[in-house]
Structure formats: structure tokens, C-alpha cells
Amino acid sequence: MSEWCPVMTPELIQEKIETRKRNLKIDRKNTTKYQRTLTSAPDERLSSKYMGVTGALVISLVAGFIVCIDLVNFSKKFKPARVKIE
Q: Transmembrane ranges (predicted)?
């Protein structure tokens, strides 16, 4: 065989495949695509700010309503008994 056409044994082929795999492998966490998934883009639109404030307000009101109901029930349960004096 000549220098331009080396003998390709199965072991040599497998070694070349493994070498190419190692050279082509990329760590996914070092790509810009992965890094872009970790950051959010700012949204300066007025409508998005109103939506965010409205959503936070609705969640706060619902949570506050539930807490108020619990406080009323809690105060009724631990209210001291009144003794009638005749």
C-alpha cells in the first residue's frame, strides 16, 4: 500500500472515531444558547408593567382574604367565654 492509502484495520477505524468524538464534543453549559436560557430580557412596555402590577395585586388580595378568614375563625375559637352575672 502507498502512503496515500493506509491500511484501515477495525481497531484503527474505531480509534479515529473515538478521537473525532472527543474533538467534536461540546459542553452544553458553555454554549451561548444555554446561557441565554438563564437570563430574561427586560420589557419596558407600559402594558407589561400594568399586567405585572395587576397580577401581584390580585394574588395579594386573594392571600389577604384567606388570612382574614383564618384570623376571624381563630379569634372566635380562642375568645374567652362570657359569664352572665345576675
A: 50-72
